[in-house]
Amino acid sequence: MKGKLNIQQIADQTGLSISTVSRVLAGKNNTSSKARDAVLECAKAQGVLNELSTGRLMLNNIMIFAPARAFDVRSDIFYYKVIQGILAATAHHEVRVRYCAMEEENADAALFIAKMTDPQTEAVLLVGIDDPHIHQLAADMGKPCVLVNCHDRHMRHDSVSPDHQTMGDFACDYLFSQGHTHIVTVQCLRRHTMELRLTGIKQAFTRHHQVFSDNQHLLNTSGFGAQESEQALLEFLDALAPGQPLPTAILAGGDFMASGVVAALAKRGFSVPGDISVISTDGFNLAEIHDVPLTAVHVPRDELGAEAISLLQRRMLRPDAPYTTQLLQGKLVVRESVRKASGRAVTCHPHTLYDPQPDR
């Protein structure tokens, strides 16, 4: 009966026992690869897999490729939490998860090929790996592969990422809605995903009839840490001419970057949000910065792992399905680091106000 889960029929056609067929279809790991392949091939021919619950993960081994820092919570909490999300999503399956550290760009292709050709590597998750050569190799090898927070320009993989572009637009739009028009964004643009976020920010400027200038509105840092952001903002502040208005709001690319921004402002005698508002696009790592509750757009993080496994399940059940890119939306959390613009601009002289049209 086509489309019906008829275990007896599959057992008859494969010559396997009913218990073996049941174990395979339940995703159990105590079956041979030969038996699993035979059952899945028969089930596909009957259309059975199209009706199975996506709760079944029909493989026993997954390999995660990610930058080395992703495996250390102190080095990259974002990717560390993504991987924890993957582990949580596979916890109720009988799946072994293995890891391999790999550079984001110019990755070790020989190492990748060695890991991919290992018979225990049945499926692959590429977390934060931007190297197009690695993407190409993964596609050529034909094993189920899902990209997490990276971009496949050749459209040969399923992928899941935060919707960076929309979140950049949304965060900046929130500042405009609070009356801020002189906005500076502090970003680290070493990854394509962050370039997407900047694109969204520029879209918000255009929609509010503002001209975005890289020289005036963008501070591009070398990293995502507080120290780089603090130094970049201090240099920006010190380069302003006397009496030149400061930004009324700063949009930081992450919580630690926001921490550096607040530290730089404090060193120059400005308060948050009294003089200058600060918003982050992260919102998980630092709920407060120097006792200031941080307004932020939460970037999906833990959810990425669960969605990556769902895409992998879909690929296992429907190997010929079109490749898809899934974008996860963020969520605005309003705290106290942003306030409505007063209409009066703070200048580079601490605690003085500049009125562009003074009373006469």
Tags for this model:
39% helix, single chain, disordered C terminus, 360 residues, alpha/beta, 6-stranded parallel beta sheet, Rossmann fold, 434 Repressor (Amino-terminal Domain)
Strand content: 15-25%
Overall pLDDT, averaged? 87
What is the H/E string? HHHEHEHEHEEHEHHEHEHEEEEHEEEE
Question: What's the overall geometry?
Answer: elongated
CATH fold topology of the largest domain: Rossmann fold
CATH architecture of the largest domain: 3-Layer(aba) Sandwich
- Strand order in the largest sheet: 2-1-3-4-5-13
Structural class: alpha/beta
Runs in which pLDDT lies below 50 for 5 or more consecutive residues are: 350-360
What radius of gyration results from the CA coordinates? 25 Å
CATH homologous superfamily (4th level) name of the largest domain? Response regulator
Report the strand count: 16
Specify the biggest β-sheet.
6 strands, parallel
Number of domain modules: 3
Considering DSSP H and I runs of 4 or more, what fraction of the residues is helical?
Answer: 25-40%
Output the CATH class name of the largest domain. Answer: Alpha Beta
Distance between the termini: 89 Å
